Amino acid sequence: MATVLQFPANISTLNNYNDLYPDWTQREVSTGTTIMAVEFDGGVVMGADSRTTTGAYIANRVTDKLTPIHERILCCRSGSAADTQAIADAVTYQLGFHSIELDEAPLVQTAASLFRDMCYRYREELMAGIIVGGWDPRRGGQVYTVPVGGMMTRQPVSVGGSGSSYIYGYVDSNYRPGMSKEECLKFTAGALSLAMERDGSSGGVVRLAVISEQGVERQVILGNQLPKFSTV
Amino acid sequence: MSEEMFPEPEWLSEEVKTGTTIIAVTFDGGVVLGSDSRVSAGEAVVNRVMNKLSPLHDKIYCALSGSAADAQTIAEIVNYQLDVHSIEVEDDPLVCSAATLVKNISYKYKEELSAHLIVAGWDRKKGGQVYATLSGLLTSQPFAIGGSGSFYINGFVDAEYRKNMTKRECQEFVVNALTLAMGRDGSSGGVAYVVTIDKDGAEEKCVLGNELPKFFDE
């Protein structure tokens, strides 16, 4: 069930509401967010906005929510910033170790499973929605989504975060299987711009990453360069 | 105890809501309104073929969302008030008048009511118009969406709406938007009702489930 997640239900806000202190000193840091990943033939395109909020204050307006887990595996983080950073660090360690043991590049599915194991085991304490994307020699470009609660499923295109509710319609209607890398980039940038326009917890710049056999290619699209959709 | 052995189904005590997706779009010469057809009480669907596009006058319709009882009552009251008004002025009412009547009720009773009506129609003075009356505000817009399913199509309508669409393009836009929303919102579903209003009158159409457009994952 996708709902507009302004604040997670299980976050305890401090009971003493004091007019002397601004709201954001008593709020948890949350990556409000819109994140997205799309598979194409030969790799994946991953994208995210760049806003981190504590209540109404934007703690970081240029956040990098695309976190490297391994050489050709990235994850998009949404939910509690602390939780997702901690999980990503733990999985990076575990995957690094596993890859040394195996003496070859890890599978994207392995990375996703590690995320899933942690998110499911500690589901009561965590608030984390993660999309894992990457390229491996066995199955090419893959996107796995591990939403809040700890399920894992592979999808050709996946969106997440509070801003994702607004773009389900756009994604459903504009995605076609077999898009090229450039089409995927345009599609992702467009979707993220639309979500950032409508969701108060998403904004800033659009960060994109393309993962393929050649490696990881990153770009940033600044605010004034975002695609415009005129509705007037 | 017998009450515990056979607990009453939740939906008997849940309020009946039109979960809903509603949309209204202007084109040059008129408006197109669209809605889904699902009415839910908790998890149960109590009516799967409800027409949420309610006539307020010959060329003015409103789209209902929120609490089914509240929305229907507002529509009936405004229908009556608009009839009286149009007899007094001896002319067809303006869409703006209809929208103002809806807004007056929504605003005055905003604490008690939980319904959102989109008013749309055609009049001689300004042609096709769409008014949103959420929580008692009144605003004229090129198009408006409402209901729980509308969250999912915000991005879609922002991207796909263009000014000066033809009547045909508007109808397709409305059906696509409704289909996408019904695909993602559990409280919206069933068939799509589409009403097209222009200077010649109002034309009602029902698009059945199997005739709705299909998207990549079906």
From TrEMBL, chain A:
UniProt-annotated catalytic positions: 33
Keyword set includes Flavoprotein: no
Substrates-to-products reaction catalysed: Cleavage of peptide bonds with very broad specificity
Cellular compartment(s): Cytoplasm; Nucleus
Main localization category: cytoplasm
BP term (GO), one: proteolysis involved in protein catabolic process
UniProtKB keywords: Cytoplasm, Hydrolase, Immunity, Nucleus, Protease, Proteasome, Threonine protease, Zymogen
Subunit structure: The 26S proteasome consists of a 20S proteasome core and two 19S regulatory subunits. The 20S proteasome core is composed of 28 subunits that are arranged in four stacked rings, resulting in a barrel-shaped structure. The two end rings are each formed by seven alpha subunits, and the two central rings are each formed by seven beta subunits. The catalytic chamber with the active sites is on the inside of the barrel. Component of the immunoproteasome, where it displaces the equivalent housekeeping subunit PSMB6.
Function in brief: Component of the proteasome, a multicatalytic proteinase complex which is characterized by its ability to cleave peptides with Arg, Phe, Tyr, Leu, and Glu adjacent to the leaving group at neutral or slightly basic pH. The proteasome has an ATP-dependent proteolytic activity.
The family this protein is said to belong to: Belongs to the peptidase T1B family.
Name this protein carries in UniProt: Proteasome subunit beta
Underlying gene: LOC113065868
Automatic annotation (TrEMBL), chain B:
Catalytic residues (positions): 20
GO CC aspect terms: cytoplasm; nucleus; proteasome core complex
InterPro entries in UniProt: Ntn_hydrolases_N (IPR029055), Pept_T1A_subB (IPR000243), Proteasome_bsu_CS (IPR016050), Proteasome_sua/b (IPR001353), Proteasome_suB-type (IPR023333)
Gene Ontology molecular function: any one: threonine-type endopeptidase activity
Coiled coil in keyword set: no
Entry keyword set: Cytoplasm, Hydrolase, Immunity, Nucleus, Protease, Proteasome, Threonine protease, Zymogen
First-listed, main subcellular location of the protein, grouped into a coarse class: cytoplasm
Pfam families associated with the record: Proteasome
Single GO BP term: proteolysis involved in protein catabolic process
Entry superkingdom: Eukaryota
Catalytic activity, as annotated: Cleavage of peptide bonds with very broad specificity
Localization, UniProt: Cytoplasm; Nucleus
Primary role: The proteasome is a multicatalytic proteinase complex which is characterized by its ability to cleave peptides with Arg, Phe, Tyr, Leu, and Glu adjacent to the leaving group at neutral or slightly basic pH. The proteasome has an ATP-dependent proteolytic activity. This subunit is involved in antigen processing to generate class I binding peptides. Component of the proteasome, a multicatalytic proteinase complex which is characterized by its ability to cleave peptides with Arg, Phe, Tyr, Leu, and Glu adjacent to the leaving group at neutral or slightly basic pH. The proteasome has an ATP-dependent proteolytic activity.
Family statement drawn from the similarity comment of this UniProt entry: Belongs to the peptidase T1B family.
Assembly and oligomerization: Component of the proteasome complex.
Name under which the protein is recorded: Proteasome subunit beta
